[in-house]
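Good morning C.,

I know you're traveling, so I'll keep this short. The sequence:
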Amino acid sequence: MIFKILKKIILVYFLVIIHFVAYNQVIKGKILDKETGNPVFSAAVYFNGTSAGTLSDAEGNFRLDVSKFSSMPLSVSAVGYYSVSLPKFSVSEPNIIHLNSRTFELDEVVVSDKSHARERRNNLMIFRDIFLGTTENSHFCKISNENDLRFTYSSDKDTLKAFSIKPLLIDNKALGYKITYYLDKFEFNIRDSIFLINGDIIFREYPTAGNSKGNSFDRKRKSAYLGSRMHFLRTLWFNEVDSTGYKFWNSARDTLAYRNLVSEYDLHSKYLKYHGRIWIYYHPAGEESLMIFLKDSIFFDPNGFFEPNGIRWEGAMAKQRIGDMLPYDYSPDY
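The tokens, ready to paste straight into the viewer:
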């Protein structure tokens, strides 16, 4: 009898601890206009590249469960404002976040639809190819609000620039995702075929429970995942690259191992550390990619998230654009 009572007490205590820990993983805060101090309504608060997010209310307040992505920066975006990324945020105190107005960009000279219809069509074709990609999956992607895109050229006409007055709404019918993309920068150097894309992305999955379309999405998602940057970094985190079909080497063709790339600070913090270039070969697909380090130390996590400005990709992994992207909370069913 005493044993049963003690067992119940221990169980209740355990559940209380779990509830306390889970509660502390829900952050709260307020979004304000930096200039006026007014609350920003319907600002998106999310983890870039995931399906985890929420919107601020009429008073600028928000709450968000961060338990799955606490190692990632928190992103905040709103129409008419610059997006912000918060590498650190508080789980115990309200987070007060200020957004800077983006009215300057709305005054830029734009290409008129009526007077430059042909030029706009050409610009849209270039933008789609670079932004969505040219793979099979990308052909099933559609930007529903292309009219919100604006194009300009540099003074020497070598660089095409694009920005959007609203977040881009993308329907990926191949992988089964509705995507919201906050485009911060798009530049394409026509002469050298070099491009730069910066922005934040939120995924929303199609409701496919129990239908045959869901099985089709599962197959295509898994195909997009295997051999991707996300797949490589996840297997690298767990030191499983050899067993999953990856090989990588340096410029001298010396085969590298986990210890040559990864520095472990603790069980939850790992960094990529390497000087130079690394060639990556994914045997099942027969594809080769190039990983160029731009920083001495690059944080990455078990979801496959990494500091995007720390690495430049070339080869097979560089061809994967929005049309082949998966959220960081994607988990393949092996």
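Safe travels,
E.
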